[in-house]
Specification:
The structure holds two protein chains of two kinds.
Chain A: E1 5-7, E2 10-13, E3 19-24, E4 31-38, E5 42-50, E6 53-56, E7 65-71, E8 74-79, E9 88-95, E10 106-107, E11 111-115
Parallel strand pairs in A: 2-11
Antiparallel strand pairs in A: 1-3, 3-8, 4-5, 4-9, 5-6, 7-8, 9-10, 9-11
Chain B: E1 4-6, E2 11-14, E3 19-25, E4 32-38, E5 45-50, E6 54-58, E7 61-66, E8 71-76, E9 85-92, E10 98-100, E11 104-109
Parallel strand pairs in B: 2-11
Antiparallel strand pairs in B: 1-3, 3-8, 4-5, 4-9, 6-7, 7-8, 9-10, 9-11
The chains are: A mainly beta, B mainly beta.
């Protein structure tokens, strides 16, 4: 398996524009996590899904952020409109938790977002 | 109180020394604990997991868990310059929510 795949790797956009980040989890994984990483706040959990259903979106900072998982192999994180303070590295991670077993989460390479 | 707290460092140790990284957590319901390593500009990668009280050793790495004190630590023996990275403590809550600390930056000096 190629691992968790994120696109794009880098995104530079102007304030006010819509930004869409994409993630393909590892096949067979039923949990998908979106994180944001900044120097000031570290690695923050934004939202996570189980079997394509959002379980907890309490980490989503504002209504400008939304996430979807239309099927088991694809998820998006959208920011509309984007602001300079959204500049960060956004990671997607996936995992599966067979009954009684806690396994690791595998991370994608991240998307470095810069909003100017 | 943050769910997962780590000393932000930076922590510097000489090559060959033992590096000790610490983490405390607030959710007593947490059952699984992980240490991830993150090199600059890269994504986090798992180096250790621990689920039971006590020590778990894997090569030069030893994870220690004390649920009563809500404390997790990572020891790196015979530290190498290639160990220089940010180390992230993470816990898995009962709802499968994976939460990370802010990380400790480690530098191993040749």
């Amino acid at each position: 398996d190629a691992g968790v795949i994120q696109s794009p790797r880098h995104e530079v956009t102007e304030m006010g524009q819509e930004v869409t980040l994409r993630c393909k989890p590892i096949s067979g994984h039923d949990y998908l996590f979106w994180y944001r990483q900044t120097m000031m706040r570290g690695l923050e959990l934004l939202i996570y899904f189980n079997n394509n259903v959002p379980i907890d979106d309490s980490g989503m900072p504002e209504d400008r952020f939304s996430a979807k998982m239309p099927n088991a192999s694809f998820s998006t994180l959208k920011i509309q409109p984007s602001e300079p303070r959204d500049s960060a590295v956004y990671f997607c991670a996936s995992s599966f938790f067979p009954r009684g077993v806690n396994t690791e989460a595998f991370f994608g390479q991240g998307t470095r977002l810069t909003v100017v | 109180q943050k769910e997962v707290e780590q000393n932000s460092g930076p922590l510097s140790v000489p090559e060959g020394a033992i590096a000790s990284l610490n983490c405390t957590y607030s959710d007593r319901g947490s059952q699984s604990f992980f240490w991830y390593r993150q090199y600059s500009g890269k994504s986090p990668e798992l180096i250790m997991s621990i689920y039971s009280n006590g020590d778990k050793e894997d090569g030069r790495f030893t994870a220690q868990l004390n649920k009563a004190s809500q404390y997790v630590s990572l020891l790196i023996r015979d530290s190498q310059p290639s160990d220089s990275a940010t180390y992230l403590c993470a816990l898995l809550r009962s709802a499968r929510q994976l939460t990370f600390g802010s990380g400790t930056q480690l530098t191993v000096l040749p």
